[in-house]
Design a protein that fits this description.
The protein has 197 residues and is mainly beta. It has helices at 10-21, 23-33; strands spanning 38-39, 42-44, 52-55, 59-62, 65-67, 72-75, 80-83, 88-89, 94-97, 100-103, 108-109, 114-116, 133-135, 140-141, 146-147, 152-153, 158-159, 164-165, 173-176, 181-187, 190-193. The chain has a single domain (10-193), classed as 3 Solenoid (UDP N-Acetylglucosamine Acyltransferase, domain 1), CATH 2.160.10. The longest helix is centred in the first third of the chain and has 12 residues, at 10-21. The chain is globular, with a radius of gyration of 18 Å.
Length: 197
C-alpha cells in the first residue's frame, strides 16, 4: 500500500510521522486516546500536569490533534464533544460539554481558554441551563478568552485575548474586549474595520 503514489509504504509513512511528532508525544497521546469514543492521532507535549479527558458517559470524538500540559476536557453523560483534525489546545485550556461542544478543523485555542455549554449548576430555583457551543473551522481563540453556552463562532474568525463571548460571532470576524465586540470583518484576505464609537 502506498501513500499518494510517493512509493512510501503505509508503515514507512507511519514511522516518518512518528519521528516527526516524537514517539514520547505519541505514547502520551495513546494514553489520552483511551478516554475517547473515536480519535485520530493525538499528540501530547510532555509537561505537568498531563492533559485529562474526563468522560462521564458522553461521546468524545477528536481528530488528529495536539494537546499541551494542563488541558482538561469534561464530557457529561449523554453529551457530545467533537474536535476537528489539525486543532491544538494550548496550556490549561478547559472545555466542559454538558450537551454539545463542537470545535472545527485547524483551530488554534490559546492558553487558559475556557469553553463551556453549561452554567454548571442551576441559579436559584430555576433549571440548569445548557446550550450547545459551536466553533467553526480555522478559528483562533486568544489567551484567557471565555466562550459561554449557546455561542456559535463562525469559521475563519479571531477571538481576541481576554474576550468573553456570550453572543454568536459571524464568519470572518475579529472580536475583542470583555464584551467581545466585532471590530473587523475578514473576507478574502482584506479587512474592513467597523465603527469604534
Amino acid at each position: 500500500m502506498t501513500r499518494g503514489g510517493s512509493g512510501i509504504g503505509f508503515i514507512g509513512y507511519g514511522w516518518k510521522r512518528a519521528r516527526h511528532i516524537g514517539l514520547w508525544r505519541l505514547f502520551l497521546g495513546l494514553l489520552l486516546r483511551r478516554h475517547c469514543t473515536k480519535a485520530g492521532i493525538l499528540s501530547v507535549v510532555p509537561g505537568w500536569p498531563l492533559p485529562r479527558i474526563i468522560n462521564l458517559g458522553g461521546q468524545v470524538e477528536i481528530g488528529n490533534c495536539g494537546f499541551f500540559p494542563g488541558v482538561r476536557i469534561e464530557c457529561w453523560e449523554g453529551a457530545v464533544l467533537s474536535i476537528g483534525k489539525g486543532t491544538y489546545l494550548n496550556r490549561h485550556v478547559e472545555i466542559v460539554a454538558a450537551t454539545s461542544v463542537t470545535i472545527g478543523k485547524d483551530c488554534k485555542i490559546a492558553r487558559d481558554v475556557l469553553i463551556m455549554d453549561t452554567d454548571q449548576h442551576p441559579l436559584g430555583a430555576g433549571p440548569l441551563v445548557n446550550k450547545p457551543v459551536e466553533i467553526g473551522d480555522r478559528v483562533w481563540v486568544g489567551s484567557r478568552a471565555i466562550v459561554l453556552k449557546g455561542v456559535t463562532i463562525g469559521h475563519d474568525s479571531i477571538v481576541g485575548a481576554g474576550a468573553i463571548v456570550t453572543k454568536s460571532v459571524p464568519p470572518f470576524s475579529v472580536v475583542v474586549g470583555p464584551a467581545a465586540k466585532v471590530v473587523r470583518h475578514r473576507r478574502d484576505g482584506t479587512d474592513t474595520t467597523t465603527d469604534q464609537a
